[in-house]
Design brief:
The protein is an alpha/beta fold and 798 residues long. Helix content is 46%, strand content 21%. It is built from 26 helices and 27 strands. The radius of gyration is 52 Å and the shape is elongated. Bound molecules: adenosine-5'-diphosphate. The site of adenosine-5'-diphosphate has 22 residues, from α12, α14 and α15.
Length: 798
Amino acid sequence: MARSEPIHILYVEDDPGLARLVQKKLQRAGYVVDIASDGEQGVAKFEADSYDLMFVDQNLPVYDGLEVIRILGSKGILPPTIMITGTGDEKVAVEAMKLGAGDYIVKDVGAGYLELLPSAIEKMLRQHRVIEEKQQAEKALRKSEEGFRKLFEQSNDAIFIHQTGRIIDVNQRACEMLGYSKEQFLTMDIADLYPQEGFTESSKKIKTSQGLNSIESILFETLFKKADGTVVAVEISSGIIDFEKKIIQGIARDITERKRTEAELQKAKEEAETANRAKTEFLASMSHEIRTPMNAIIGMADLLMETQLTPEQQQYVQVFQSAGENLLTIINDIIDISKVEAGHVQLETIDFDLTDIIEKICDVMAVRAHEKGLELVYSAMPDVPTDLLGDPTRLRQILVNLIGNSIKFTEKGQVFIQVESHGTKNGNIELLFSITDTGIGIAPEQIDTIFDAFTQADSSVTRKYGGTGLGLAISKQLVELMGGHMMVESKPGQGSTFSFTAPFAIQTEPKGYIEKIALDMKGVKVLVVDDNETNRMILRNTLSKLGAIITESDSGEHGLAEFKRAMETADPYQLALIDHRMPGMDGFELAKHIKETMGNIKNTAVMMLTSDNRSGDRVLCKEFDITFYLVKPVKKAELLVAIATIMGRKIEPVVGKIPEARSVDLTKIRSLNILLVEDSADNRLIIQAYFKRASDHIDIAENGAVAVEKFKAGKYDLVLMDVQMPIMDGYTATREIRKWEQEQGRKETPIIALTAHAMKEDVQKSLDAGCTDHLTKPIKRTTLMEAVQKYTGAKSNK
Ligand code: ADP
């Protein structure tokens, strides 16, 4: 290390000649050298000045060399010192080293003593520097250790250091947290801190280093036992300090506060859930409360309608009926929205036929549309698959709602329903449904809120059209539950388009219509002529599933060539499906050529598929022997019915029909012994009236307990069981009856539960209790009679 300042040396020597000689020599080597001629002077020099190095002769006046070293040493100001001794005086040298001298030189001028001095100085200074550095490092280490100790002591977390399980150090916080003194800790094992219930797998691991490897550290929550016997919740982070010696450090944080917050949050969550449940239960029971009197109203209105009424009275009763139906819709909406909001709606995933669903909805909705003079148009793009997997009930609910709104809010024009394929999403097909109307539209400032529950665009509009403002909220939530989203575009005065996307899986083994229609085309040779690849694909898929053998041609020219070839090889086509609009030779031209080719042997049925319904086409069809023509997009069912008809088999179309009003032949029901269990006198009256024309005998029980007694005493063909009753409810009564029947070895009597609960779970509840079936109030006469027939008819047929 280069020093900027010269090195100061004190040379204590009583021989002035030698002293000067040495001084000169060392000065020449760059040192600054002072001389002291005796021991006392030497000590005094140190009091006035400081030196980097001292040479001291042993034999000096006043104090000898050893004395000088001793004095300076005792004052703590001894510099790096080299003792100069006479020949053979090693004892003195050893003594000097003991007192703190760093080295010694034997004063033997003849042996080149002077020459040795510079290297002795260098060696001495080097040595000194090493010592000094070491001291400094030790000092720094001490300082850092103090720092760590401070950290250790002042940490807000309790720190434990343990070796093979035995506690060897703890900080102040550990003492405060657990109430032991440090001395007590040092007699304990870390395991002593764990109460039985807090001794987890993790805490076992850190008891010793076994199980922890040298780099692993673990974090876990546990309990610590305090000196007073209570426990404290802690989070421990533990790691190895010395793997060999099995020294482990554990830092314990008091998490009492955190645990309390967590518990409070959990409690709040539970409370919220309870409140939510209470809300749902409230809605369910409210709907029950409303349904019960509704039962009386609707039932009585139905009965009244069957009596002799003046036209005016009939009108009044109709108002009754429709008001009742409206009220029921509202109740159902309320139950629906509360179920959706409470997360109680679970979607089904079942096979369904999209075309079937939409066509049926259109059939029903068309009645309402036509009443208002509106056109209801449905179109599905050809690439929309129809054999889907999903929840048809919910899809129907959404569509009915949107189409219903469009009809409701449109005075003239049309409601147009369209389904398009919107790409694929996670292996499912995404469909885009849109319902466009030419109605009153929605003002831009209202468009954002119409999807909120109980919100309507305009209260004056509502007064005119009625409604609860729940339909769109339910629909939107259902769409989102399905994984799609709902959109609306509207121009006031011009109309609105409500659209939504929804993903569906495609059935792997579609059943669809084809099975329902049961058309067998096994081995039937069909020629499909269409320039549109997608159309050909649809026809191919549909018909080949039924066993038909399909040949495709993409133009009139190719189609004709193929047709001729088949005729010539005496293997003609039984059916030709021809597209009207094709470039080059169009459908009618092709049909004309076919007619000519066939001549008199008319063994091929020709069917034309057109996109427009021009009246002239009909005439052309007749002229070219075209037995059937269909307007695209062709409904699958229509196509199959047409083919069946052409091929000489008449089959009934199963789609596109409004379900017939159900009627029941009352004469078929034999005289029955019925036990009616019902606490409400109104409802008893209605049910009794329903049976008025049949020769049945009805016994009444006002509650479950009476019912069980009567059941045991009498002999009944059927029990109609209300569910909510005082004293004993219907579920309990049913269970008791079933138990008794079993004990008696009797066959189960049909028990039909009559409840005001419309929820799915309630149906299950009745069935679980042992009921044979479940009817929801208000109960219509036909529904009840159907059920009665179903469960007693079997007996009477015997
Ligand atoms: P509501 O039972 O009142 O019809 P909805 O939630 O179905 O409840 O609709 C909310 C409101 O949105 C309606 O009251 C109406 O103002 C507006 N709306 C819905 N559909 C249409 C539509 N096709 N044309 C115009 N306004 C509509």
